Amino acid sequence: MNLSSSDRIEMEDAADTRPILIVPYMWIGDFVRGHTVVRVLKQRWPNRPVDLLVTSLCGPLVDYMPGVRAGIVWDLPRSRLALAKQRGLAAELRARDYGTALVLPRTWKAAIAPALAGIPERVGFFGEARFGLINRMRWGEKALPRFIDKNAALALPDGAPLPPEWPVPQLVVPLAETARWRRANGLGSGPAVALGPGSVGASKRWTYYPEAARLLIERGLDVWVVGGPGEKALAQEIVAATEGKARDLTGTDLRNGILAMAAASVAISNDSGLMHIAAAIGTPTMGIFGPTSPYLWAPLNDLAATVLQTKSKLPCQPCQRTVCTMNDHRCMRDITASEVADIAQRVMTQSSVR
């Protein structure tokens, strides 16, 4: 495979119209990053439809992903193989007559339904010795530096070198839809900061969202708290700290979070799925990092600011742990509320000038 001067993956066969199925990772941030795989496939085969297997949680994301024909919504339990549900999914996939399936997760479970459906080409890494389930086995996953490299490499020919840069994920949210959403929620039309205080793993959660929200409101900005049901307590704490002026927009529908991130003037988030959503939309996004590495886990999309503590060098950082076990969470506690509020204001000023 050759790369053009613009680093685009070259088209292989415009006459090929066999549909392709992607079995992605189903965590929100990983699902968003999987759009890079879609874009690589569409560059190689512009006329092959691309579908995504998706959970009901991540389903709304598919509506905003260019190049995706359809999302196949199918919830499989996390704790078991659920063979009856796998057979039902296989029947659904067989009816869609896929020519190729890219199985991004390394598990047996992810590969069962494509194999039962008889999809002719089933591409994936060795994983859990998935001989037979994967019939276009790839090797060398451990040599690939980043999560995105491991995933997007499966969309390239076997053995092809990685491009200097991958296509970045995109979520395209119509302006009319965000305007309707603001009106429906009584949010007015003023500049707003969307806060994403949640994350998978307590160590990735920055401590001072309530104080930052208060400072931002004092500076004349609206503040929205965005997240799922697990962030409800955090949202209530932020609302209380601002004497009810911040808006709690947490809930069970991810579409609400997508539209909040699209409507906001700037997003401030931990290393989480909402950070990847905001960045893929193109909203100026501040990612707060402590225990995780921005090189490994930041969006491919440009961040308006990558916020890290710089007061002292911590030997444990980045630890990649979900719970802090040393240095009393200083990688996050040493990032102050005033610092984040100042950066947010600077980001908003810069984005309004462009």
From TrEMBL:
GO terms for biological process: lipopolysaccharide core region biosynthetic process. Its EC number is 2.4.99.24. It is an enzyme of class 2 (transferase). Keywords: Glycosyltransferase, Transferase. It catalyses: an L-alpha-D-Hep-(1->5)-[alpha-Kdo-(2->4)]-alpha-Kdo-(2->6)-lipid A + ADP-L-glycero-beta-D-manno-heptose = an L-alpha-D-Hep-(1->3)-L-alpha-D-Hep-(1->5)-[alpha-Kdo-(2->4)]-alpha-Kdo-(2->6)-lipid A + ADP + H(+). GO terms for molecular function: ADP-heptose-lipopolysaccharide heptosyltransferase activity. The keyword Glycosyltransferase applies. GO terms for cellular component: cytosol. It holds the Pfam family Glyco_transf_9. InterPro entries: Glyco_trans_9, LPS_LOS_Heptosyltrfase, RfaF. The keyword Transferase applies. Belongs to the glycosyltransferase 9 family. This is lipopolysaccharide heptosyltransferase II.
